[in-house]
TrEMBL record:
One of its GO terms (biological process) is protein lipoylation. It comes from Macleaya cordata. Gene3D superfamilies: Bira Bifunctional Protein, Domain 2. The record marks 144 as: Lowers pKa of active site Cys. Belongs to the LipB family. This is lipoyl(octanoyl) transferase.
Length: 235
């Protein structure tokens, strides 16, 4: 008999990056001590640039003051990966899951995040693929459609993936996306000939692809995000 594995999924809508970061930190602690089950945050951010723990500031091509004038924030994080952009019309997943419980190592985890986005793209007739060596993420030809930056602490994951549905690509002109200078960025809307459904539908499809890739058989959907934020005392 196949083991039933549950995943609690929070549909958060648009959330400030720092709020999401603080929430992840609290949820990681709770997951370590078994206070919560495996959890997935599904959300978007307002325009935000983030740098990973390698602090590759040279890949930010404009002064931070210019980012502020265009309504974007800059944040430093402890995730892996290089500089990236998060913004409206981008589907973001932050898994807070125990890799030990599912028997995954770090490489297998990242590969399955890639598979999650590849599967979503295929639903719209887009042939995406993993990057070459040192090119973590998902690509359509030489154009990046999905970014990955993760942190693993005591076997518990945080941060995650960002899939471009239809973000404003002008924001990417101010950085060297993921530190790769000779390749571009693309979106699902640009690559498909199909008419896209609502972004809520695409977010749900991405969650379903994630669950399939990681073997979660029971999704418990949560929508009252104010309750979660209050419970985690980050307001």
């Amino acid at each position: 008999m196949r083991l039933q594995r549950s995943l609690e999924v929070w549909k958060m809508g648009r959330v400030n990056y720092l709020d999401a970061l603080k929430l992840q930190e609290k949820l990681v602690s709770d997951r370590k001590f078994g206070k919560i089950p495996d959890t997935l945050l599904s959300l978007q951010h307002p325009p935000t640039y983030t740098l990973g723990k390698r602090r590759t500031d040279h890949n930010l091509l404009v002064p931070e003051a210019d980012l502020q004038s265009m309504g974007a924030e800059l944040h430093y994080t402890q995730r892996g990966g290089d500089i990236t952009f998060h913004g409206p019309h981008q589907a973001i997943l932050y898994p807070i899951i125990s890799l030990r419980d599912i028997g995954f190592g770090a490489r297998k985890y990242v590969e399955n995040l890639e598979s999650t986005m590849i599967e979503l793209a295929s639903l719209y007739g887009v042939r995406a693929h993993p990057g070459n060596k040192c090119e973590t993420g998902v690509w359509v030809g030489d154009r990046k459609i999905g970014a990955i930056g993760v942190r693993i602490s005591s076997g518990i994951t945080s941060h995650g993936l960002a899939f471009n549905i239809d973000p404003d690509l002008n924001y990417f002109k101010h950085i060297v996306p993921c530190g790769i200078a000779d390749k571009g960025v693309t979106t699902l809307k640009r690559e498909t000939e199909m008419e896209l459904p609502t972004e809520e539908v695409i977010h749900e499809q991405l969650v379903s692809c994630f669950a399939k890739s990681f073997g979660f058989t029971n999704l418990v959907w949560k929508e009252n995000i104010s309750t979660l934020l209050e419970n985690q005392e980050i307001k």
